[in-house]
Automatic annotation (TrEMBL):
The gene is Ndufaf4. Binds calmodulin. Interacts with NDUFAF3. This is NADH dehydrogenase [ubiquinone] 1 alpha subcomplex assembly factor 4. One of its GO terms (biological process) is mitochondrial respiratory chain complex I assembly. PANTHER family: NADH DEHYDROGENASE [UBIQUINONE] 1 ALPHA SUBCOMPLEX ASSEMBLY FACTOR 4, UPF0240 PROTEIN. InterPro entries: NDUFAF4. GO terms for cellular component: mitochondrion. Belongs to the NDUFAF4 family. It comes from Fregata magnificens.
Amino acid sequence: SDHPEIQAEIYRKDDRLLTLLKDVYVESRDPPVRVKDGGGEHLPCKQEEKRLTKLGHLGDVDVKKVPKGKISIVEALTLLNNHKLHPQIWTAEKIAVEYSLELKEVNSLLEFFIPFALQEFPKETKKAI
């Protein structure tokens, strides 16, 4: 605004340039996609569906959300213990529905992970052992 002659020059129409621009044709194409190892690492990943964990009184020591199809450590220990104590109530099918898991994964979990029970012997029997 200090130099009105510069402002006038900026806003002046150049008829010769406008005529030349009418003859310009631009065609734009994306470069061909090259597939290489690890090429998908820059693609936006699909948003994972998450669920709130069922933690009960141990909520302070575990995560609050997990992806569907996964469980937290506290949930795993809880469901294994529930199945051990009440297998007729906490069946694999009920656990799969309750924790949004695949039934075959729940069956594998129940087969290969069994929580152990800690037993303490009274002091007088320790000597006998």
